[in-house]
Amino acid sequence: MKLHTRILLGLLAGVICGTLLAWFKIGAVASYLQPVGAIFIKLLKMITIPLIMVSIMGASAGFSDLKKLKRIAMKTIVFFLASTIIAVSLGILASNAFKPGHGLDPLKKQQIMADIQADAHWQKQLATSAAAQKKTISAFLLDMIPTNPFTALATGDMLGVITFSLLLGLACTLIDPNKKQKIVDLLDAVNDALIALVKAVMKLAPLAVFTLITVAIAQFGFHFLWSLLGYCLLAIGVMMLFLFAYYSLAIALLGRFNPITFFKAMSSVGLLAFSTSSSNAVLPENMISCEQKLGIDKRSAAFILPLGATINMSGTAIYQGVSVVFIAQVFGLALTFQQQLLIILTATLAAVGTAGIPGIGIVTLAMVLGSVGIPAQGIGLIIGVERILDMCRTVINVLGDSATALIVDQSEKRRETRKASKNT
Questions:
Q1: From residue 42, how far is each of 2, 49, 191, 280, 357 by CA, in Å?
Q2: pLDDT tens digits for 77-93?
Q3: What is the per-residue pLDDT for 105?
Q4: Closest-CA residue to 97 (of 313, 340, 315)
Q5: Cβ neighbours around 331 below 10 Å, total
Q6: Contact, 318 vs 90, CB < 8 A?
Q7: How many CB atoms lie within 10 A of CB 401?
Q8: Residue 411: other Cβ atoms inside 10 A
């Protein structure tokens, strides 16, 4: 039985088990299963940072043509930014059209806010979100350069690790070619060892997915979901539309690749992203699948995918666009056209440097709310369904990285084919 089939079975079993625990109001039992999923995610995260460093160093050092590396980087960043802008704009347009905030019963609103105020865990989340508003855009840019690369490695600072690895890899192109080749060979060998470790860890995926989904369904609370059904359905609907319409068109038109083949090949990655809610945790399996199932060049995948896990947050952008307008509608605030443009800009900039960890969208959402003067306390209205939306948007974020890697790689291959035909 293939891995994606086993993961899907684990996911379905988790939905059934979690639903039964929630139905009989014994969701606390799920906490006993939580360590299994937590161990799996920690194992993947343990591999992620070394794999990113080795992959980016090997990719940048291994590119004999630095113009090609520059070209790949420019194509990747432009497509990431364009996708994020389109995503948040689509979320805002959908919220303006369907107005999910106007349909929320005032009594339900009071009940939700009362539940949140009585919950110490969510109050801590809100405090973290409010603190995030104080972080400026210039601080994000400064975070790109780590003061100490070893500290960046130890703390999991993705942006710092990527910057250091890229610069060190480029520096290798300036040294003696024989020495450079030895470094590249060593990096390739370490990369192969890390990939072998990923494959071993992935054998735990079906069981881990079962436990993660069971815990999520049993503990996030159905009363929140039903209270905010319109908001949830709108957010998830826009995400699915973006994934299967926008990325399918981009893959077909820009990548000249069959979208059905793409989604079929990446099904296990999508299921894993949904279960873990972490772009970083899925990154090792994403790299393997892109190389082996889609035929993406190893060095292109090694450069584009870690970068995407850090700056490409299309799913998060949709979530922020829908959420900001929803909260404004519930509070009876009318957003001007200029304010909505500001939301698009802020949400796009907030995506840069966002860590690929569960729940980070709540933190960046506070920044977007603050940009148009909406109180961060409004997050309390939607925080009860944060987990299920986090799972959905992670799928868009991760598969968006894969789609971008495919599009850019296919573009480079066509360019090389044209160049070879001219020379013959």
A1: 24, 12, 19, 11, 11
A2: 999 999 999 999 999 99
A3: 65
A4: 340
A5: 14
A6: yes
A7: 33
A8: 17
Q: How far apart are CA 258 and CA 337, in angstroms?
A: 38
* pLDDT < 70 regions, the chain: 64, 103-105, 107-141, 143, 219-227, 351-363, 384, 424
* CB of 30 closer than 8 Å to CB of 229: no
Determine the pLDDT at residue 309: 86
What distances in angstroms separate CA 327 from CA 20, 117, 119, 122, 323, one per listed residue?
32, 17, 20, 17, 6
For the chain, list the domains and their CATH numbers. 3-39+76-137+206-417 (1.10.3860.10)
H or E element: which one contains 331? Answer: none
> What's the confidence (pLDDT) of residue 37?
86
Residues 6+ apart with CB under 8 A from 17: 210, 214, 217, 218
Q: Which two tokens stand for residue 164?
A: 């250091």
Report which residue type is found at 71.
R
pTM: 0.83
CB 207 within 8 A of CB 36: yes
What token pair was written down for 265?
A: 């090949």
pLDDT value for 20? 86
| Cα–Cα distance, 182 to 235 (Å, whole number) | 49
3-state secondary structure of 355: coil
DSSP line for 251-310 = HHHTS-S-HHHHHHHTHHHHHHHHHH--HHHHHHHHHHHHHHTS---HHHHHHHHHHHHH
Looking up tokens 């443009």, which residue turns up?
Answer: 341
Residue 253: half-sphere exposure toward Cβ, Cα within 13 Å: 6
Decide: 364 and 133 in contact? Cβ < 8 Å. no
- Tell me the C-alpha distance between 194 and 47, whole Å: 7
